[in-house]
Design goal:
single chain, about 240 residues, Jelly Rolls, 7-stranded antiparallel β-sheet, 3 helices, 16 strands, about 10% helix, about 50% strand
Length: about 240
């Protein structure tokens, strides 16, 4: 960085690190300690709209964390299964998922800021359509926020992740950001979980979530401002 002293460069680095968000350790679940044939312990499962979803733990030799996965094998408008006793406002939720079957849909999704069966955010990947989409559910009605084309392999494990902080929502599929927008329809803390659609038969594994907290702003000392007017200008312009 020509034109800047070592101390000025060091100050730039400190400012960048101090302004970055911190992510708490993830809380992970692989369903391996749960009873096969029943919903996982500590989860509540149901459907937005009509239908008869069937959520249960099942052995799967291909599971990323063997031996078990969570699978939805029934039918419903929008089946969901969420963690009980979780209240997360800003954070992330992530899961491996494998679309197995479905004539109408082969979808695997994540929900967050889940208040109840009619109010929450959802991001889903669909193997029949090869896309990723973002919605919010309000009073049981689904509202589309954005679609993005993306390859979603059938019968293979993929990773869906959502990061959310304030109005910012970012959806990633297999490590690549597909949707990045701001939306304020659903605020405050809520639960997290997994989601499917219609006749999708989908398996989930390695479900994880955690908080994202903004680091406290670290202001340069008066001495540093005097030494580096350029740094002061950079900070005040909020680059």
């Amino acid at each position: 960085m020509a034109g800047f002293s070592y101390n000025q460069i060091l100050l730039f680095a400190v400012l960048i690190i101090a302004s970055a968000p911190t992510i708490s350790p993830a809380l992970a679940e692989g369903f391996d300690q749960d009873k096969v044939g029943a919903p996982p312990s500590g989860w509540s499962c149901g459907v937005t709209g009509s239908g008869a979803p069937v959520w249960h733990v099942q052995a799967d030799a291909t599971a990323p964390s063997k031996p078990n996965v969570l699978i939805q094998s029934g039918k419903g408008a929008f089946p969901w299964c969420v963690k009980r006793d979780v209240a997360l406002a800003d954070g992330f939720v992530e899961s491996r998922f494998k679309p197995l079957d479905g004539r109408e849909d082969q979808a695997g999704g994540l929900v967050w800021r889940w208040k109840d069966g009619g109010n929450y955010y959802v991001a889903r990947a669909n193997a029949l359509e090869n896309n990723v989409s973002l919605y919010y559910m309000a009073r049981g009605v689904r509202h589309t926020l954005k679609y993005a084309d993306a390859p979603v392999p059938q019968g293979q494990w993929s990773t869906l992740r959502v990061e959310f902080s304030g109005k910012r929502i970012r959806v990633l599929l297999n490590g690549k950001s597909r949707i990045d927008i701001e939306d304020a329809h659903i605020g405050d803390a809520g639960s997290v979980g997994v989601w499917t659609k219609a006749d999708s038969v989908t398996a989930f594994d390695n479900f994880s979530f955690g908080e994202i907290k903004a680091a406290q702003e670290r202001k340069p000392t008066p001495q540093a401002d005097q030494e580096s007017p350029a740094v002061k200008s950079w900070r005040e312009s909020d680059i």
